[in-house]
Design a protein that fits this description.
The complex is a heterodimer of chains A (189) and B (229). In chain A, 85% of the residues lie in helices and 0% in strands. Chain A is elongated, with a radius of gyration of 39 Å. Chain B has 2 domains: 122 residues, no CATH class; 54 residues, no CATH class. Chain B is built from 5 helices and no strands. The chains are: A mainly alpha (189), B mainly alpha (229).
Chain lengths: 189, 229
């Protein structure tokens, strides 16, 4: 049966055709090791850049300044083209007044825009930092969980070794004791 | 006493084999198909042009609005267009903010996914280490059990040896009787004569003869005596 989302299924047992895994423990270790190597190779620098940018990004503020300069030139051009379109000749005083008015309004706009950009930048950076902390916290949580598992295994190994040593000694002493007591019984010392 | 454990009895089940094969195939498929996609998303998020697109749209919106307001009166009065400049700045700022938001979301999404993989990998490594530790423990325990069994067996053999040796040494040494069977024989010094005693490895019977041969030895010991009395 074929349809949307269906692989070109031809029937048959796909699982039995898969290559077997002779040592799943080793394969699992290899996969997890390679995943971490891939992360370091492909995403570590990306992550560090993002961390740096979330703390130091000023692109919105920088853009606001650039936008103001761009707006002033653009609006001056618009005014000139409109004047030409309607055949208006402004006096030098009118023109000066027009330029001053544009510069004043543009500077006010710049101040407003930069102030808004500072707030927006802060919000964006804070949001990015918050998300990064969430990601880092998740990674840290699983790292601690992993460390806990390894530590527990190490403790179990150590305990098992200590118990085995103790059991071995006990067995040895028991054997020696058995021999000695047998000798004592045998020779009626 | 049971037979020795056979390694074939400890082979993984069909379900385990299938699980391992499918997991391996899925991992391979993921690496081949999804990893490159995530890397593409990473690159795309770094060269994201959403802000440029939005700025272009903001520019077009502003200009359309301004063009509609163009009039002779405005041109003749020398209107500066300051309000429009402010509006233009605000529009571009809004576009920049939205563009940055899109870029940040993309990059954080990529990183979150990548770190999610990494986190899974770490958890996996922990499980792998745990599995390894469990196997080491099992092996150690098995070796220890084997060692203890050997030691125990050795002790049993040695104990039996000592006990039997002592019993052998106790054998013989009976008082020699004269022909009447009641009067002990004595030597020239007047000491009671006894049969020779057994050695550690060789017992002697009541007459002082060495008990030799498998059948004689078996008959001599109480090994075949199954009577509880």
């Amino acid at each position: 049966m074929q349809g949307i989302g269906n692989f070109n299924y031809q029937g048959g047992d796909y699982v039995s055709q898969l290559p077997g895994v002779s040592d799943p423990d080793k394969a699992y270790a290899s996969i997890t090791r390679n995943d971490y190597i891939d992360y370091v190779k492909n995403y570590r620098q990306f992550e560090e850049d993002l961390l740096d940018r979330a703390q130091n990004d000023t692109s919105l503020i920088d853009d606001a300044r650039t936008n103001a300069a761009e707006a002033q030139g653009l609006m001056a051009g618009v005014a000139d083209r409109n004047a030409a379109r309607y055949g208006v000749n402004l006096t030098p005083a009118q023109r000066q007044q027009q330029e001053r008015g544009l510069a004043r309004a543009n500077n006010l706009g710049l101040a407003q825009s930069v102030n808004d950009a500072r707030i927006a930048q802060k919000e964006a950076n804070q949001a990015a930092i918050g998300d990064l902390i969430n990601i880092g916290q998740g990674v840290n949580r699983s790292s601690l969980s992993q460390m806990q598992g390894v530590a527990q295994s190490a403790t179990q190994r150590k305990n098992a070794y200590d118990q085995a040593k103790a059991a071995s000694k006990a067995q040895t002493y028991s054997t020696i004791g058995g021999l000695a007591s047998a000798a004592i019984f045998a020779f009626a010392f | 006493m049971g037979s020795k454990p056979k390694q074939k009895d400890y082979q993984p089940s069909a379900a385990e084999k299938a699980s391992a094969a499918v997991a391996m195939a899925e991992n391979k498929y993921f690496k081949e198909k999804y990893d490159p996609l995530l890397q593409k998303m990473r690159d795309a998020s770094q060269t994201d042009d959403s802000a440029d697109v939005l700025r272009g749209r903001a520019n077009a919106d502003t200009m359309q609005t301004l063009a509609g307001k163009a009039s002779y009166d405005r041109a003749a009065s020398g209107a500066s267009g300051g309000a429009e400049a402010q509006a233009y700045q605000a529009q571009l700022a809004a576009a920049d903010k939205t563009g940055l938001g899109i870029k940040n979301n993309m990059q954080l999404g990529v990183l979150g996914t990548a770190r999610g993989q990494a986190a899974d990998a770490q958890t996996g490594m922990g499980s792998a280490a745990s599995m390894g530790a469990s196997r080491v423990l099992t092996q150690a325990k098995a070796k220890q059990t084997e060692r203890e069994a050997k030691m125990g067996a050795l002790g049993q053999v040695a104990t039996s040896l000592v006990l039997q040796g002592a019993k052998n040494m106790q054998s013989g040494g009976k008082v020699k009787m004269q022909a009447d069977g009641k009067t002990p024989m004595k030597d020239a010094n007047g000491n009671v004569m006894r049969t020779e005693k057994g050695s550690f490895f060789t017992p002697r019977d009541d007459d002082g003869n060495k008990v030799q041969g498998f059948g004689n030895r078996l008959g001599y010991s109480d090994f075949m005596n199954t009577s509880p009395y």
